[in-house]
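Predict the holo structure. Ligand: pantoate.
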Amino acid sequence: MEILNNRESLKSYINAQKEQGKSIGFAPTMGALHSGHLSLYEHARKDNDIVISSIFVNPTQFNNPEDLEKYPRTIDKDINLLKKHGFVDAVYIPTINDIYPNGAQSKQYDFGGLESEMEGKFRPGHFDGVGTVVEELLRQVQPNRAYFGEKDFQQLAIIKKLIEITGLPVEIYGIPIVREENGLALSSRNQRLSPERREEAKLIYETLTKANEDFKAGKNPSEIRRAVAQTFDNIKDYTLEYISIADEETLREAHEFLPSKSYRAFIVVVVDGVRLIDNLHLK
Ligand code: PAF
Protein backbone atom coordinates (compact mmCIF):
# COMPACT_ATOMS: atom_id res chain seq x y z
CA MET A 1 0.00 0.00 0.00
CA GLU A 2 1.28 3.45 -0.95
CA ILE A 3 1.33 6.10 1.73
CA LEU A 4 0.97 9.54 0.15
CA ASN A 5 1.94 12.18 2.67
CA ASN A 6 1.49 15.27 0.57
CA ARG A 7 -0.29 16.70 -2.44
CA GLU A 8 2.69 16.25 -4.80
CA SER A 9 3.01 12.53 -4.12
CA LEU A 10 -0.75 12.13 -4.58
CA LYS A 11 -0.56 13.99 -7.88
CA SER A 12 2.13 11.77 -9.36
CA TYR A 13 0.35 8.64 -8.12
CA ILE A 14 -2.98 9.73 -9.68
CA ASN A 15 -1.31 10.74 -12.96
CA ALA A 16 0.34 7.31 -13.23
CA GLN A 17 -3.01 5.54 -12.63
CA LYS A 18 -4.86 7.74 -15.13
CA GLU A 19 -2.18 7.15 -17.78
CA GLN A 20 -2.81 3.43 -17.44
CA GLY A 21 -6.56 4.03 -17.80
CA LYS A 22 -7.31 2.73 -14.28
CA SER A 23 -10.63 3.60 -12.63
CA ILE A 24 -10.38 5.06 -9.13
CA GLY A 25 -12.70 4.47 -6.15
CA PHE A 26 -12.28 6.86 -3.21
CA ALA A 27 -13.39 6.78 0.42
CA PRO A 28 -12.44 9.87 2.43
CA THR A 29 -12.23 9.45 6.22
CA MET A 30 -11.10 11.23 9.35
CA GLY A 31 -9.29 8.12 10.57
CA ALA A 32 -9.87 6.02 13.71
CA LEU A 33 -10.88 3.39 11.20
CA HIS A 34 -13.38 0.63 11.98
CA SER A 35 -15.42 -1.98 10.13
CA GLY A 36 -17.76 0.72 8.80
CA HIS A 37 -14.82 2.17 6.84
CA LEU A 38 -13.73 -1.29 5.72
CA SER A 39 -17.16 -1.81 4.25
CA LEU A 40 -16.70 1.35 2.12
CA TYR A 41 -13.41 -0.05 0.80
CA GLU A 42 -14.96 -3.43 0.04
CA HIS A 43 -17.63 -1.77 -2.10
CA ALA A 44 -15.01 0.42 -3.79
CA ARG A 45 -12.85 -2.63 -4.50
CA LYS A 46 -15.68 -4.34 -6.39
CA ASP A 47 -16.36 -1.40 -8.72
CA ASN A 48 -12.87 0.05 -9.40
CA ASP A 49 -9.32 -0.87 -10.46
CA ILE A 50 -7.73 1.21 -7.70
CA VAL A 51 -9.00 2.12 -4.22
CA ILE A 52 -7.75 5.24 -2.46
CA SER A 53 -8.66 6.40 1.04
CA SER A 54 -7.75 9.61 2.79
CA ILE A 55 -7.24 10.34 6.45
CA PHE A 56 -7.66 13.97 7.44
CA VAL A 57 -9.32 15.37 10.55
CA ASN A 58 -10.95 18.38 8.96
CA PRO A 59 -10.98 21.35 11.38
CA THR A 60 -13.56 23.41 9.48
CA GLN A 61 -16.38 20.92 10.04
CA PHE A 62 -16.11 21.02 13.85
CA ASN A 63 -18.19 23.76 15.40
CA ASN A 64 -17.10 22.63 18.85
CA PRO A 65 -13.35 23.00 19.61
CA GLU A 66 -13.53 20.35 22.35
CA ASP A 67 -15.00 17.82 19.90
CA LEU A 68 -12.15 18.56 17.46
CA GLU A 69 -9.54 18.22 20.18
CA LYS A 70 -11.01 14.95 21.47
CA TYR A 71 -11.56 13.40 18.04
CA PRO A 72 -9.57 10.13 18.12
CA ARG A 73 -6.33 10.18 16.12
CA THR A 74 -4.86 6.70 15.66
CA ILE A 75 -2.82 7.02 12.48
CA ASP A 76 -0.32 4.14 13.05
CA LYS A 77 -3.13 1.77 13.99
CA ASP A 78 -5.12 2.93 10.94
CA ILE A 79 -2.22 2.30 8.56
CA ASN A 80 -1.68 -1.19 10.04
CA LEU A 81 -5.36 -1.99 9.65
CA LEU A 82 -5.36 -0.82 6.02
CA LYS A 83 -2.26 -2.91 5.26
CA LYS A 84 -3.74 -5.97 6.94
CA HIS A 85 -7.12 -5.61 5.27
CA GLY A 86 -5.52 -5.12 1.85
CA PHE A 87 -8.45 -3.45 0.04
CA VAL A 88 -6.80 -0.05 -0.24
CA ASP A 89 -4.03 0.62 -2.78
CA ALA A 90 -3.06 4.05 -1.49
CA VAL A 91 -3.83 6.24 1.50
CA TYR A 92 -3.60 10.00 1.19
CA ILE A 93 -2.69 11.76 4.45
CA PRO A 94 -2.56 15.42 3.50
CA THR A 95 -1.17 18.21 5.63
CA ILE A 96 -3.43 21.12 6.54
CA ASN A 97 -1.62 23.19 3.86
CA ASP A 98 -2.34 20.61 1.18
CA ILE A 99 -6.07 21.13 1.75
CA TYR A 100 -6.15 24.76 2.90
CA PRO A 101 -3.20 26.61 1.34
CA ASN A 102 -4.85 29.94 2.23
CA GLY A 103 -5.81 29.06 5.81
CA ALA A 104 -8.45 26.71 7.21
CA GLN A 105 -11.66 28.40 6.10
CA SER A 106 -14.90 27.02 4.72
CA LYS A 107 -16.49 28.04 1.46
CA GLN A 108 -20.17 28.86 1.68
CA TYR A 109 -22.67 26.70 -0.15
CA ASP A 110 -26.36 26.70 -0.81
CA PHE A 111 -27.41 23.08 -0.55
CA GLY A 112 -31.04 23.91 -1.29
CA GLY A 113 -32.20 23.78 2.34
CA LEU A 114 -30.72 20.34 3.14
CA GLU A 115 -28.11 22.09 5.26
CA SER A 116 -30.73 23.74 7.51
CA GLU A 117 -32.32 20.56 8.85
CA MET A 118 -31.18 18.41 11.81
CA GLU A 119 -27.36 18.58 12.03
CA GLY A 120 -27.54 22.02 10.39
CA LYS A 121 -29.53 23.34 13.37
CA PHE A 122 -27.21 21.85 15.99
CA ARG A 123 -23.86 22.26 14.25
CA PRO A 124 -23.82 25.65 12.50
CA GLY A 125 -21.29 25.78 9.65
CA HIS A 126 -20.70 22.02 9.79
CA PHE A 127 -21.86 21.29 6.24
CA ASP A 128 -19.92 24.19 4.73
CA GLY A 129 -16.83 22.58 6.30
CA VAL A 130 -17.74 19.13 4.98
CA GLY A 131 -18.52 20.53 1.52
CA THR A 132 -15.23 22.43 1.40
CA VAL A 133 -13.03 19.47 2.33
CA VAL A 134 -14.91 16.93 0.20
CA GLU A 135 -14.84 19.23 -2.85
CA GLU A 136 -11.09 19.78 -2.41
CA LEU A 137 -10.35 16.08 -1.89
CA LEU A 138 -12.42 15.12 -4.95
CA ARG A 139 -10.59 17.70 -7.07
CA GLN A 140 -7.22 16.34 -5.93
CA VAL A 141 -7.98 12.61 -6.03
CA GLN A 142 -10.16 12.75 -9.20
CA PRO A 143 -12.00 9.49 -8.49
CA ASN A 144 -14.57 7.91 -10.79
CA ARG A 145 -16.63 6.87 -7.77
CA ALA A 146 -16.69 7.99 -4.12
CA TYR A 147 -18.17 6.14 -1.14
CA PHE A 148 -19.79 7.50 2.02
CA GLY A 149 -21.56 5.79 4.93
CA GLU A 150 -25.31 6.11 5.40
CA LYS A 151 -24.74 6.66 9.13
CA ASP A 152 -24.24 10.31 8.18
CA PHE A 153 -27.27 10.24 5.90
CA GLN A 154 -27.64 14.02 5.81
CA GLN A 155 -23.96 14.38 4.89
CA LEU A 156 -24.50 11.89 2.05
CA ALA A 157 -27.46 13.93 0.72
CA ILE A 158 -25.38 17.12 0.97
CA ILE A 159 -22.48 15.53 -0.93
CA LYS A 160 -24.81 14.40 -3.73
CA LYS A 161 -26.03 18.00 -3.90
CA LEU A 162 -22.40 19.24 -3.91
CA ILE A 163 -21.75 17.15 -7.03
CA GLU A 164 -24.83 18.68 -8.67
CA ILE A 165 -23.61 22.20 -7.81
CA THR A 166 -19.96 21.74 -8.81
CA GLY A 167 -20.52 19.37 -11.76
CA LEU A 168 -17.56 17.25 -10.61
CA PRO A 169 -17.44 14.04 -12.71
CA VAL A 170 -17.82 11.50 -9.90
CA GLU A 171 -20.54 9.05 -8.91
CA ILE A 172 -21.51 9.06 -5.23
CA TYR A 173 -22.47 5.85 -3.44
CA GLY A 174 -24.12 5.51 -0.02
CA ILE A 175 -23.13 2.39 1.91
CA PRO A 176 -25.41 0.88 4.60
CA ILE A 177 -24.62 1.39 8.28
CA VAL A 178 -22.44 -1.28 9.91
CA ARG A 179 -23.48 -2.06 13.49
CA GLU A 180 -21.91 -3.67 16.52
CA GLU A 181 -23.49 -6.98 17.51
CA ASN A 182 -25.75 -5.16 19.97
CA GLY A 183 -27.00 -2.79 17.22
CA LEU A 184 -24.94 0.32 18.07
CA ALA A 185 -23.90 2.03 14.81
CA LEU A 186 -20.12 1.87 14.35
CA SER A 187 -18.47 5.24 14.76
CA SER A 188 -14.98 6.50 15.49
CA ARG A 189 -16.54 8.29 18.46
CA ASN A 190 -17.55 4.95 20.09
CA GLN A 191 -13.90 4.62 21.15
CA ARG A 192 -14.55 7.37 23.67
CA LEU A 193 -17.22 5.31 25.47
CA SER A 194 -16.46 2.93 28.35
CA PRO A 195 -17.26 -0.74 27.57
CA GLU A 196 -20.35 -0.50 29.83
CA ARG A 197 -21.61 2.61 28.05
CA ARG A 198 -20.95 1.03 24.69
CA GLU A 199 -23.16 -1.87 25.67
CA GLU A 200 -25.92 0.33 27.10
CA ALA A 201 -25.88 2.61 24.05
CA LYS A 202 -27.64 -0.16 22.12
CA LEU A 203 -30.72 1.62 23.46
CA ILE A 204 -30.35 4.10 20.57
CA TYR A 205 -30.84 1.44 17.91
CA GLU A 206 -33.53 -0.29 19.97
CA THR A 207 -35.40 3.01 20.08
CA LEU A 208 -35.14 3.42 16.30
CA THR A 209 -36.40 -0.13 15.84
CA LYS A 210 -39.32 0.65 18.14
CA ALA A 211 -40.02 3.80 16.08
CA ASN A 212 -40.23 1.57 13.01
CA GLU A 213 -42.68 -0.74 14.82
CA ASP A 214 -44.81 2.31 15.65
CA PHE A 215 -44.64 3.40 11.99
CA LYS A 216 -45.85 -0.03 10.90
CA ALA A 217 -48.62 0.13 13.51
CA GLY A 218 -49.92 3.31 11.87
CA LYS A 219 -48.81 5.90 14.44
CA ASN A 220 -48.27 9.42 13.11
CA PRO A 221 -44.90 11.26 13.12
CA SER A 222 -45.56 13.29 16.26
CA GLU A 223 -46.67 10.21 18.20
CA ILE A 224 -43.48 8.45 17.18
CA ARG A 225 -41.31 11.44 18.12
CA ARG A 226 -43.03 11.71 21.49
CA ALA A 227 -42.46 8.02 22.28
CA VAL A 228 -38.75 8.34 21.47
CA ALA A 229 -38.41 11.48 23.61
CA GLN A 230 -40.09 9.69 26.54
CA THR A 231 -37.61 6.82 26.31
CA PHE A 232 -34.69 9.16 26.98
CA ASP A 233 -36.53 11.43 29.41
CA ASN A 234 -35.26 9.95 32.63
CA ILE A 235 -32.02 8.28 31.70
CA LYS A 236 -29.08 9.70 33.58
CA ASP A 237 -26.12 10.83 31.42
CA TYR A 238 -28.13 10.45 28.18
CA THR A 239 -29.33 13.59 26.43
CA LEU A 240 -31.55 13.29 23.39
CA GLU A 241 -30.36 16.12 21.15
CA TYR A 242 -32.98 15.46 18.50
CA ILE A 243 -35.30 12.88 17.02
CA SER A 244 -36.54 13.66 13.56
CA ILE A 245 -39.04 11.68 11.51
CA ALA A 246 -38.31 13.13 8.12
CA ASP A 247 -38.88 12.85 4.39
CA GLU A 248 -35.87 10.93 3.06
CA GLU A 249 -35.45 13.23 0.07
CA THR A 250 -35.93 16.73 1.48
CA LEU A 251 -34.94 15.75 5.07
CA ARG A 252 -37.80 17.96 6.26
CA GLU A 253 -39.75 16.98 9.36
CA ALA A 254 -42.83 14.91 8.44
CA HIS A 255 -46.23 15.93 9.81
CA GLU A 256 -48.09 13.07 8.16
CA PHE A 257 -47.07 9.99 6.20
CA LEU A 258 -47.86 10.08 2.47
CA PRO A 259 -47.80 6.76 0.59
CA SER A 260 -45.81 8.29 -2.32
CA LYS A 261 -42.87 9.25 -0.06
CA SER A 262 -40.15 7.46 1.92
CA TYR A 263 -39.35 8.33 5.51
CA ARG A 264 -36.47 7.85 7.90
CA ALA A 265 -35.98 8.28 11.65
CA PHE A 266 -32.89 10.33 12.58
CA ILE A 267 -31.52 10.55 16.09
CA VAL A 268 -28.66 12.12 18.02
CA VAL A 269 -28.03 11.18 21.64
CA VAL A 270 -25.20 12.52 23.76
CA VAL A 271 -23.89 9.81 26.09
CA ASP A 272 -21.33 10.87 28.68
CA GLY A 273 -20.41 13.83 26.49
CA VAL A 274 -20.02 11.69 23.33
CA ARG A 275 -22.34 12.63 20.49
CA LEU A 276 -23.82 9.52 18.85
CA ILE A 277 -25.75 9.71 15.57
CA ASP A 278 -27.93 7.06 13.93
CA ASN A 279 -30.83 6.66 11.53
CA LEU A 280 -33.20 4.02 10.21
CA HIS A 281 -35.34 3.80 7.07
CA LEU A 282 -39.00 3.32 8.06
CA LYS A 283 -40.68 0.43 6.30
O1 PAF B 1 -17.66 11.37 7.31
C1 PAF B 1 -16.49 11.77 7.56
O2 PAF B 1 -15.65 11.06 8.08
C2 PAF B 1 -16.12 13.20 7.19
O3 PAF B 1 -17.20 14.05 7.36
C3 PAF B 1 -15.55 13.32 5.77
C4 PAF B 1 -16.56 12.95 4.71
C5 PAF B 1 -14.31 12.45 5.63
C6 PAF B 1 -15.13 14.78 5.52
O4 PAF B 1 -14.19 15.21 6.43
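The pocket of pantoate is lined by residues 28-30, 58, 61, 130, 133-134, 152, 155 (CB under 6 Å). Residues 126-141 form the longest helix (16 residues).
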